[in-house]
Design goal:
The protein is α+β, with helices and mostly antiparallel strands. It is about 40% helix and about 40% strand. The mean pLDDT is about 85.
Length: about 150
């Protein structure tokens, strides 16, 4: 066994201390790059989630404004219909990946974009909206409706 060690050292095979330090430095640099890349991906994810949250809150605010003047509300074919005091019929439904608004069967205004699934339900004076975004985020909100008569 003593002769075997002597051959490894004499033939120059194996790692020297400087080679081991050099590999350690390279490994630590790669680890830092991977860590920075992970933090960047996490920041992108947080930004996407924040954007979806902002879109959702704006949509809810707009919907609440339409519900303020409601005289009647009903749901048909997963579309929300709001009849306001000026006898306008407001229809809110999902077509493809967009929740859109139509007033008196004319025109379409996109309210929320990037939707996989949307569900409207009505129970007593509470309208519930459940939305799944394309990235898998699910949002749900229940809104109290005070009928204007």
């Amino acid at each position: 066994m003593h002769q075997w060690r002597w051959r490894i050292v004499r033939n120059g095979k194996g790692f020297t201390f400087i080679e081991a330090l050099f590999q350690l430095v390279i490994f630590s640099l790669l680890a830092q790059v991977i860590f920075i890349f992970y933090l960047l991906i996490q920041q992108w994810h947080d930004t996407i989630v924040a954007e979806e949250q902002i879109k959702w809150e704006i949509f809810i605010h707009d919907l609440q404004q339409y519900l303020l003047d409601a005289e009647d509300i009903y749901i048909m074919n997963n579309s929300l219909y709001i009849i306001d005091s000026s006898t306008k019929t407001i229809k809110i439904n999902k077509i493809t990946d967009v929740i859109r608004l139509q007033i008196n069967d004319q025109g379409y205004v996109p309210l929320l974009i990037g939707i996989r699934h949307a569900e409207f339900s009505l129970s007593n004076n509470i309208v519930t909206i459940k939305v799944e975004f394309l990235n898998g985020i699910v949002k749900e909100r229940a809104l109290l409706v005070q009928y204007h008569k």
